Amino acid sequence: MRKYLPEGAHFRKVMNGDKVDLLALLKNVWLGRKIVVSIMVFFVITGLFIALFSPVKYSSGAILLPQVEGQKDLGQISNLASLAGVNLASMFGEAEGIPPDLYPNIVGSYPFLHELMSTKFKFKNFDEPLTLYQYKKEEGNRGVLRLVRRYTIRLPWTIKDAIFPPKDIIYEIESSEADGEIVIVGKETLGHMEDVFGAISVEVSTRTGLVYVSVLHEDPFASAQIAKRTVELLQQYIIEYRTKQVSENLKFVEMRFNEVQQQFNNIQKELYQFRDAHRNYVEERISLRFHQLNDEYLLMQSVHQGLAQQLEQARLAVKKETPAFSIIEPVKVPVEKSSPRRAVIMIVSVLLGGVTGFITLYGIIVYYNFKKLWLNDEASIVA
């Protein structure tokens, strides 16, 4: 670095007591301008490379307004409270579903991402629909920039992974396919999931309750497809969680109702057959068997009617607990790109280069001043 400083350069002291000497500061920067300019040029070239070779991406999304029964009952009071960022429904225990603040956690969960990435989408560079797993694998083989980064910036990690292959990461999940089983996820798959999750944005406004879902992708049509599927899965997960208890109750009542229905039909059939067989007999009125069948029939009829009412109530409960989602802004295929913002990248590169160059310059000044003092102290000791 010394070669970038002019011969006989004498840097002034910047701090004068508690004050900063701006003139001395500017003179020091001027004396070390080669260092500052060199670092700025490096940052500008790097920023230009990133701006030119970064893939163009498009953003597509939707705006949702989740509604639950509890929020409807609170009416205008809940609306006024929401302006202050207060959720009265949750305070009074009206809403037992998933809080909107946890929606990003749902999207980032393994079951959600696995189901999303197992869905097939159409991509402009491929003839057949591909899952996101397949697309990420093909993208990794085709991506020139990714390959360059792997063998330049990330070369140490590439060598490390080649010598010490990463171990699989184990997740325990609950799903309809493998309840309570252990699922082994390799590092490559986990990396693909992290890439997909990084491209999905879920933001919740505490003031209005609106949920903003957006997806960033190189293919505008694929971006819209993935965003639409993300919204559908998010709604599905929220509805399943919200209605889980009442749905299980409905299944139990339906199962019990079907059993009683079968028993009721059997006893009804047996009673009618007994009546037909003894139609011309007066003693059927005092027959013990007739009274037994009739009592069983009346009992099963009462149980059947009671379960029928419970079944209807359970169905109404499921409908009542099912949250409604109003689509304020539907998913659309984007026309304009969202990234890279080349002007912003260049401005940030210049600013970072200037700041880094300034810090580096003063680091060099401090180093040489400290070295000079150290040598002077040693010379005085020898003398």
Automatic annotation (TrEMBL):
Subcellular location per UniProt equals: Cell membrane
Domain of life (superkingdom): Bacteria
InterPro entries, per the entry: Bact_polysacc_biosynth/exp (IPR050445), LPS_length_determ_N (IPR003856)
What is the protein's name according to its record?
Chain length determinant protein
Transmembrane stretches, start-end: 35-53, 343-368
Organism in which the protein naturally occurs: Alkalitalea saponilacus
Cellular component GO terms, alphabetical: plasma membrane
Signal peptide region: none
- Record's bilayer topology term: Multi-pass membrane protein
Keyword tags: Cell membrane, Membrane, Transmembrane, Transmembrane helix
